[in-house]
Structures are given as structure tokens and as C-alpha cells.
Amino acid sequence: MYEICPETPADEYEVEALYDLCFSPGRTALSSYRLREGVPRVADLCLILRDPSGMVLAAIRFWPARIGPHRVLLLGPVAVHPTAQGEGLGGLLMRNSLTRARAMGWGRVLLVGDEPYYSRFGFHKLEGVEMPPPTNPDRVLGLELHDGAWVGVQGMVTREERPELRAGLAEMAGTPHIGSACSEVEHPRDDTDGSQSPGGAAADQ
Ligand SMILES: CC(C)(COP(=O)(O)OP(=O)(O)OC[C@H]1O[C@@H](n2cnc3c(N)ncnc32)[C@H](O)[C@@H]1OP(=O)(O)O)[C@@H](O)C(=O)NCCC(=O)NCCS
Q1: From the alpha carbon of 91, which atom of ligand 1 is closest?
Q2: Do the beta carbons of residue 39 and residue 64 sit within 8 Å?
Q3: Phi first, then psi: what are they for 141, rounded to 5°?
Q4: CB 184 within 8 A of CB 6
Q5: What are the chain's domains?
């Protein structure tokens, strides 16, 4: 059985090592990291997936950001260990975290990545939403967790500067705190024999 849990400080080293393995060492030079530096993550949505031996096979993180007065959830990085890519684990973490985000009351999600991969989760190219340069506008993708959440939301994506983030989250509709509960999950593909390919590089972070 596999387990999905919110990331804790004790997991930090393993998650960073996984990201270093899956991305180039210069990953933090990407423009999207300017939106993350010094900003607390949305802890309830940062998830890790462990295999039955306890090894971290996949991880996903989220940060809060802003477009003008609008809150937006910045997805990424998401990574799956190279030995386990193409087995559905990335999809599992994506769906699990987005379900949690909806339950927490988040309305809109943003990421920079390959539309052919992320469209399966409902992401599509956003018009008029600008990430810090240099970012290919074709890779700026959004998802509505509530109908109409992206309508009229355009402009430059900026850092979440408000320190009272927790308080801000509590204002949001729905469940304010999802908690630290882990969930056991079946492997998404029971026919996995390790021979599948993930289909190439996927996304920025
Ligand atoms: C991208 C990543 C998270 C996907 O997770 P995964 O567990 O390997 O993917 P899944 O098993 O859920 O999905 C596999 C499917 O996605 C497709 N896919 C993977 N990358 C793709 C891409 N760049 N474009 C289109 N499709 C892609 C595969 O072809 C496969 O398709 P199928 O279901 O029709 O066979 C993982 O491969 C990874 O960590 N890659 C390196 C790091 C990275 O690029 N992360 C994204 C940063 S935000």
C-alpha cells in the first residue's frame, strides 16, 4: 500500500533531494521561484507519496500568489522519482492535492508547464496572465476549482506579501484546515512492470 501525507519539516531533505534528482541543479533560478522565496508554502497541500518501504517516490508543493487583488494557488514543483515515472503517481498527487485545494476553498490554480500533460487535469492556457519573465506565455496554465474563478482575472502574478496568510486562508469559504491526515492509496496501475516511459520532460517548476 502507498501512502499520501502532507509534507512535514522532517521530510524536507528527502523532498529537496527528489527535486534535485528530477530537475536541473539550477531549478531555483527559474522565474517562478521569485514568487516563492520567503513566502510560506500552503502546508496542507504540499504532499508526499511514500511506497510501502517508506521511500518518497513523489512530491508536490503549492504556494500562494496574487494577481492584483485576487488570490491564486501556484502549483509546483511536482516530481516523481525517475524509476517510478509513467505509473500514474504524478496524476495521483495532482488529483489528491487539487481535491484538497477545492475543499479548502481555493478557487483558481496556476502553473507553468506542458499543456499536453496538465490538460488532463483541466488546465488550459491563460490569456493575459503574466508570470515574471522570462516565461513562455504558452506554458502559463490555469484551472478553475470553482466555476468562473478565472473570469476577469488578468495581469502580472506577484508574490503573496501578506504575512497573515493563515488568517487569510481562514477567511476563505469551505474547510479552513484540511489537517495532517495521511491516506492510504492503491498503486494507480496494477499492471506496472517498470517498463513504461513517462513520455518526455514535462514542465517548469
Ligand atoms: C511530470 C511528472 C510529474 C508526471 O508524473 P508521472 O507519474 O510520471 O505521470 P503519470 O504516470 O501520472 O502520467 C503519465 C502520462 O503523462 C504523459 N506525460 C508525461 N509527461 C508529459 C508531457 N510533458 N507532455 C505530455 N504528456 C506527458 C505520459 O505520456 C503518460 O501518458 P499516458 O497516461 O497516456 O500513458 C513526472 O514524470 C516527473 O516528475 N517528471 C520530471 C519532473 C517534471 O517535469 N515535473 C513537472 C514540474 S511542474
Answers
A1: 12
A2: yes
A3: -120, 150
A4: no
A5: 2-185 (3.40.630.30)
Cα(47) to centroid(ligand 1), Å: 17
Q: Indicate the SS3 state at residue 50.
A: strand
Q: How far apart are alpha carbons 92 and 49 in whole angstroms?
A: 9
Amino acid at 119: S
The alpha-helical segments, DSSP class H, found in the chain are 12-22, 89-104, 115-118, 165-171
Residues 6+ apart with CB under 8 A from 24: none
Give the position of cell 491563460: 126
Q: What are the pLDDT digits (tens) for 155-186?
A: 999 999 875 554 445 445 444 456 668 999 99
CB distance 110 to 127 below 8 Å: no
Among 33, 35, 78, which is best to mutate for testing ligand 1, by the most ligand atoms less than 8 A from CB? 78
Pairwise CA distance, residues 82 & 18, whole Å: 9
> Which of ligand 1's atoms lies nearest the C-alpha of 77?
48
Please give the distance, rounded to the nearest whole angstrom, from the Cα atom of residue 49 to the centre of ligand 1.
16
pLDDT tens-digit map of 39-69: 999 999 999 999 999 999 999 999 999 999 9
Q: 76 CB under 6 A from ligand 1?
A: yes
Q: Looking at ligand 1, which residue's alpha carbon is closest to its atom 5?
A: 90
Task: Read off the pTM.
Answer: 0.89
